[in-house]
């Protein structure tokens, strides 16, 4: 259970109307956490495919090297090829036949594998995924891949390699009538 729901349990419960049956459901947050997805580096092709999809093909802020040099010198920040990737169009899918972990939960965006929920978290929540008594809200964010910076003389832009990283902010709700 996330720290906010522990501190403010009454804030994190709500009542919703089901439009079809007019039955009232009480939803209570029973899990909330943010974490780095695992396995992304073993599935680089898929990870970059999702990054291209989420970025709409715009890389390095969509700016040229002249602009990037000015930005880097002004902010002292490197610029990643994939910056500020974000989506709520996330599907969690159990993978009980996974030979490494029977509780494995893979994360999909646009029907493409992005990564796995860490094993210690998957063990706690696996039974809730794809169970009608629970629902989840997930926000996937990411950034990384190659990045641009300036050389030591701050004269020209250079490109370096870095892994692409995805994080998931996951909230699971228990639904009760």
UniProtKB/TrEMBL annotation:
Q: Which UniProt keywords apply?
A: Hydrolase, Metal-binding
**GO MF annotations for this entry?**
hydrolase activity, acting on acid anhydrides, in phosphorus-containing anhydrides; nucleic acid binding; zinc ion binding
Q: Name one Pfam family in it.
A: HIRAN
Q: Which residues form the HIRAN domain?
A: 63-164
Q: Which InterPro entries match?
A: HIRAN
Q: Which domain of life is it from?
A: Bacteria
- What name goes with this protein? HIRAN domain protein
Organism whose genome encodes this protein? Streptococcus mitis
